């Protein structure tokens, strides 16, 4: 069994480095993340005033992250009151874990219900110390918002993960021990993937005072690992998370791998010369154990990320332990460094900070120079121990590189890990030169978010990231479908190249109207395919799509191969060369069939499967073939025979379109038996067919009566008695071909209704030639079946226009019309537009079919950008961040209504709420606001208490108690009575209003 563990996803936030890219940049430029302690950290809290640090701590410097109070609680459906009670470390971990999972190429929603483990290293719990000792303000939310366990449990809860979930406190080694436990859980089969994380937020000066009193604190607040300048610890904070998988699983799934964990080990100092003092022998042993489990020799290790706090005793012990293993190196000494020189000692997050540094160094094949390495501590005798500090970046050679990582806890729990560079077979990013998408001719970029505002924010972030580096467009699009999914608002836009994509993303983010057009709110789709009939053909129809899309090319070639034995000439070549003979019936009909079949199969391969089908006259052949009535070869023989036999009929017939209903035309037809109704396309859209001279006489009469007409350009009088000479010959072929019952609901234009277990056999197809096309009746029946989208499968969107002129269905709704081919200039862009429209409406395409094999490579998109609008720090709830400019209100997204879906909590300000004069509504809204921390203006009838407002069982009990205080009539109401009526704010108000109205008078007036 391969016991290696792959690091497949990373996210972090450290001083001076708000994300992984900035962290790597900070390391490579030997940046300094140290600054003055922000006033927000341990200035007097309004709820608890600790003794000031002045005189007790020797420094006012440290490594601090920006905006630790910002939290996108609405994203995680956490009420403002609960968010305000939560330890900031929980908030940071939630957002960091989400982004790390995305970085692993996985949509976090896809982990729902999976045995994914969560292992969090954490050392400080200062938020709990501040809040749980403020007894007057302890609430249920304060209880669940604090505690080590909740740092891991929050992640498992909100991502719905079912694997092991635990927090680890071994002091400074906590997060590397968490990684060790995660790796072991993966190897034992307890979980198939794991999130390992570490976090530290310095809320009070307590540890700074402790470090000072213990003689461990650096006066300038900076760690100087292994340096002659080393004079103690500087505190730091931050959060980091990695996603881990067994290497064999990551490789099998084609995930990108930053680096590989070869082996880890954990031990304890035992009884040494003090519980807080380091133990060289224990460190020496844990390194040896890690090497043994990794199956490596010390001389194979190129560099080690040390614990390196910059204390005299700590550095000396660590170097001695490493020197025991590396002093005999005959080649180059092992490079040694510590990220604490950049960030300070991040305590519970120190191990994960070092792990991420090592993983990025192996990934980029460069080890950053160590800050403060210029003047190494000569007393450490590094060279004699086979060690050297990195005064400049170290370029790693080709092949496998190995690295070590140490993290030692103040109480004596030590951890060491051995990492190696990703194996050659691991997925690597594709280059932009290989980027041209060829699956459907153009790439499609999708993005989902819980609100339009979140869409705008993240579209801008994606545009900026894509503009900053050359990106393989196909891989970018594919990654967007796989990772940026799962939220209510669905954005989709196609683009032929990355530059155009960046422009379109920025345009959508800047223009609310454009964003609204490119965004949908999903839902369940019900798709109807409409297959266009004769008359829609033209030279080079779909030629652009054939050039752009291998999928369409494959299916048109397939149809051509099936037709060739019966036509004697390539229909495909006829179409693509622009031959005008495509208008001749013998070629028009098989050509339209080929296009309809190829386009229908292409859509099906892309995951657009029809729920309903309708074909206009000759279009019914492709519809029937795709509905399983007969195989392609049989359909090809039948349609080729139809066109050839019709072409052999004598000339002399014609067709006349009239803007009138069939009943209106009966008087004109009474004296012209050589003319009849051939097509009924709508209430006032009829086509007459028959003898050309007779049609001309009728045309004059209609013109005299001011009825609009148009003589059609056709070779024969289709669907008239003039077709009868060919019927016997056609019937003979049709009987040989046969035909079964459609496997999908097919709306017949022969009968004007859905076929109900009736075969489309020889009798059907013979009658289909002679009898009228009842398109209006068939289409109206189809609309009554409630499709959400009609997709026109043909070279021109003719039927979509006809369908729009029909009366609406009984429900009053009309389906969205989608046209994969819009006319002579159509190519892959229109097909991509159609797919985008269907995606916005709720369809999930088969994305793998959109891209060719060479494009199916992973790509790391920019992580999700959370809102920083809400701030939670001191007691009293949320504080909205000041903005330089108010955010423009977005127009309502298509399909976004109370009837179709419930609005996100971020949009409720524009929605109507219960009348303030309603006393029951006032009580309920006030109670919900108190329990959840919401403003009254935010609460509207169709917000859901659980899904939108973040209520849970504890909050429901508090809500019931608060309402009962104001409405005594509810005293007899049990929780069991209340629970079924908590679906929404409006439902709860209505129920309580009704209950109060029916309560006895003495209860209502009590």
TrEMBL record:
* This protein's record includes keyword Nucleotide-binding: no
Q: Where is this region: Disordered?
A: 879-902
Identification of the protein by name: Type I polyketide synthase
Cite the Ketosynthase family 3 (KS3) domain residue spans from the record: 2-421
Say yes or no: keyword Chaperone present: no
> InterPro entries annotated for this entry?
Ac_transferase_dom_sf (IPR001227), ACP-like_sf (IPR036736), Acyl_transferase_dom (IPR014043), Acyl_Trfase/lysoPLipase (IPR016035), Ketoacyl_synth_AS (IPR018201), Ketoacyl_synth_C (IPR014031), Ketoacyl_synth_N (IPR014030), Malonyl_transacylase_ACP-bd (IPR016036)
* Domain Carrier residues, every copy: 918-996
Which segment of the chain is annotated as a signal peptide? none
**UniProtKB keywords:** Acyltransferase, Antibiotic biosynthesis, Phosphopantetheine, Phosphoprotein, Transferase
């Amino acid at each position: 069994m391969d016991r290696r563990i792959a690091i497949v996803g990373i996210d972090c936030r450290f001083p001076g480095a708000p994300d992984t890219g900035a962290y790597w940049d900070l390391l490579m430029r030997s940046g300094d993340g140290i600054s003055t302690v922000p006033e927000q950290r341990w200035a007097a809290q309004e709820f608890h005033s600790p003794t000031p640090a002045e005189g007790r701590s020797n420094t006012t410097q440290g490594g601090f992250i920006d905006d630790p109070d910002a939290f996108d609680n609405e994203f995680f459906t956490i009420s403002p009151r609960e968010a305000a009670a939560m330890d900031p470390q929980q908030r940071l971990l939630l957002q960091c874990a989400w982004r790390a999972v995305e970085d692993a190429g996985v949509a976090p929603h896809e982990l729902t219900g999976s045995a994914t483990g969560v292992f969090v290293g954490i050392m400080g719990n200062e938020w709990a110390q501040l809040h749980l000792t403020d007894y007057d303000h302890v609430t249920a939310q304060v209880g669940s918002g604090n505690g080590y366990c909740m740092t891991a449990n929050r992640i498992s809860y909100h991502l719905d993960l079912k694997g092991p979930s635990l927090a680890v406190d071994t002091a400074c080694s906590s997060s590397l021990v968490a990684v060790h436990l995660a790796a072991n859980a993966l190897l034992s089969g307890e979980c198939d993937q794991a999130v390992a994380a570490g976090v530290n937020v310095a809320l009070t000066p307590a540890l700074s005072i402790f470090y000072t009193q213990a003689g461990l604190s650096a006066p300038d607040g900076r760690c100087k690992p292994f340096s002659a300048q080393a004079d103690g610890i500087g505190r730091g904070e931050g959060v980091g998370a990695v996603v881990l998988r067994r290497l064999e699983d990551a490789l099998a799934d084609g995930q990108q791998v930053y680096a590989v964990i070869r082996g880890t080990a954990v031990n304890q100092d035992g009884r040494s010369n003090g519980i807080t003092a380091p133990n060289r022998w224990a460190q020496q042993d844990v390194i040896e154990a890690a090497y043994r489990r990794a199956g490596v020799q010390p001389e194979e290790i190129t560099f080690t990320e040390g614990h390196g706090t910059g204390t005299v005793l700590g550095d000396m012990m660590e170097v001695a332990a490493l020197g025991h293993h590396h002093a005999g190196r005959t080649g180059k000494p092992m490079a040694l460094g510590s990220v604490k020189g950049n960030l300070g000692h991040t305590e519970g997050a120190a191990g994960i900070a070092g792990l991420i540094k090592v993983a990025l160094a192996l990934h980029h094949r460069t080890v950053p120079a160590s800050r403060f390495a210029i003047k190494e501590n000569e007393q450490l005798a590094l060279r004699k121990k086979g060690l050297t500090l990195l005064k400049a970046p170290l370029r790693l050679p080709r092949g496998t590189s190995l690295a070590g990582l140490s993290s030692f806890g103040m109480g004596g729990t030590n951890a060491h890990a051995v990492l190696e560079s990703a194996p050659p077979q691991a997925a690597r990013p594709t280059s932009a030169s290989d980027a041209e998408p060829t699956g459907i001719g153009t790439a499609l970029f999708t993005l989902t978010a819980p609100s339009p505002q979140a869409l705008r924010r993240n579209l801008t972030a994606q545009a900026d990231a894509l503009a900053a580096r050359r990106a393989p467009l196909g891989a970018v699009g594919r990654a967007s479908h796989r990772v940026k999914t799962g939220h209510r608002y669905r954005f989709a836009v196609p683009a032929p190249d990355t530059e155009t994509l960046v422009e379109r993303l920025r345009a959508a983010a800047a223009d609310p109207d454009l964003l609204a057009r490119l965004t949908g709110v999903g839902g369940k789709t019900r798709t109807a395919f409409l297959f266009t009939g004769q008359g829609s053909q033209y030279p080079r129809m779909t030629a652009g799509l054939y050039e752009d899309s291998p999928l369409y090319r494959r299916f048109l070639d397939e149809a051509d191969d099936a037709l060739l034995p019966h036509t004697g000439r390539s229909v495909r070549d006829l179409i693509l060369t622009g031959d005008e003979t495509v208008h001749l019936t013998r070629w028009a009909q098989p050509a339209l069939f080929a296009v309809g079949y190829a386009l229908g199969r292409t859509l099906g391969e892309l995951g657009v499967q029809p729920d309903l089908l309708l074909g206009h006259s000759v279009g019914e052949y492709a519809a029937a073939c795709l509905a399983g009535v007969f195989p392609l070869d049989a359909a090809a023989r039948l349609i080729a025979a139809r066109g050839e036999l019709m072409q052999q009929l004598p000339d002399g017939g014609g067709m006349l379109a009239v803007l009138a209903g069939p009943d209106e035309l009966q008087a004109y037809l009474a004296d012209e038996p050589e003319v009849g109704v051939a097509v009924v396309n709508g209430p006032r859209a009829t086509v007459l067919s028959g003898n050309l001279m007779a049609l001309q006489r009728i045309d004059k009469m209609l013109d005299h009566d001011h009825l609009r007409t148009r003589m059609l350009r056709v070779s024969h009088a289709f669907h008239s008695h003039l077709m009868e000479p060919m019927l016997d010959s056609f019937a003979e072929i049709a009987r040989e071909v046969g035909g079964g019952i459609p496997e999908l609901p097919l709306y017949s234009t022969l009968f004007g209704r859905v076929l109900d277990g009736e075969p489309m056999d020889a009798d059907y197809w013979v009658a289909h030639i002679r009898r009228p096309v009842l398109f209006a009746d068939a289409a109206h029946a189809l609309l009554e079946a409630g499709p959400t989208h009609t997709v026109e499968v043909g070279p021109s969107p003719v039927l979509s226009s006809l369908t729009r002129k029909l009366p609406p269905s009984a429900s009053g709704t009309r389906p969205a019309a989608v046209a994969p081919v819009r006319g002579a200039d159509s190519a892959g862009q229109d097909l991509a537009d159609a797919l985008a429209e269907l995606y916005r409406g709720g369809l999930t395409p088969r994305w793998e079919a959109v891209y060719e094999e060479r494009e199916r490579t992973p790509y790391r998109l920019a992580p999700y950008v959370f809102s920083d609008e809400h701030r939670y720090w001191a007691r009293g709830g949320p504080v909205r961040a000041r903005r330089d400019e108010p955010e423009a209100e977005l127009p309502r997204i298509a399909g976004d209504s109370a009837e179709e879906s419930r609005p996100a909590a971020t949009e409720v300000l524009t929605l109507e709420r219960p009348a303030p004069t309603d006393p029951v509504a006032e009580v309920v809204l006030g109670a919900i606001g108190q329990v959840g921390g919401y403003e009254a203006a935010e609460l509207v009838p169709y917000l859901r208490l659980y899904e939108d407002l973040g209520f849970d069982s504890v909050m429901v009990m508090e809500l019931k108690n608060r309402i009962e205080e104001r409405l005594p009539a509810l005293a007899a109401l049990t929780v069991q009575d209340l629970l079924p009526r908590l679906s929404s704010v409006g439902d709860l108000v209505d129920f309580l209003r009704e209950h109060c109205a029916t309560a006895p008078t003495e209860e209502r007036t009590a």
